[in-house]
Amino acid sequence: MNEEVLTILEEITGTDEVKNNLDIDIFAENLLDSLGTIQLLVELEDHFQISIPVSEFDRKQWSTPRKIIQQLKDSQG
Predict the structure, then answer these.
(1) Degrees (nearest 5) of the Cα angle 62, 72, 74?
(2) H or E segment to which residue 2 belongs
(3) 12-39 burial, b if ≥16 CB within 10 A, otherwise e?
(4) How much is the pLDDT for 75?
(5) What is the pLDDT of residues 13-61, one digit of tens each?
(6) Which residue from 21, 19, 20, 56 is spatially nearest to 37, judged by alpha carbons?
(7) Which of 5, 33, 52, 69 is the most buried (most CB within 10 A)?
(8) DSSP for 3-66, written as a single string
């Protein structure tokens, strides 16, 4: 799962920094804007067959590659 998430992040952000630093804040570093966030959620939902409601999306909980991976693991039980 980790590699798949990192590949999706790399494609959306256009940088491999997300693979090299799992604690990089993708919002603070302006690697992801609101449109990119929606694209990320759609890609993750499609790839992992899960539902991530935009209304429940909290940037603090999804701000780094490490946190994104953990959120997905938590959502899959």
Answers:
(1) 105
(2) helix 2-13
(3) bbeeeebbeeeebbbbeeebbeeebbee
(4) 81
(5) 999 999 999 999 999 999 999 899 999 999 999 999 988 888 888 999 9
(6) 56
(7) 5
(8) HHHHHHHHHHHT-THHHH-TT--TTTTTS--HHHHHHHHHHHHHHHT----GGG--GGGGSSHH
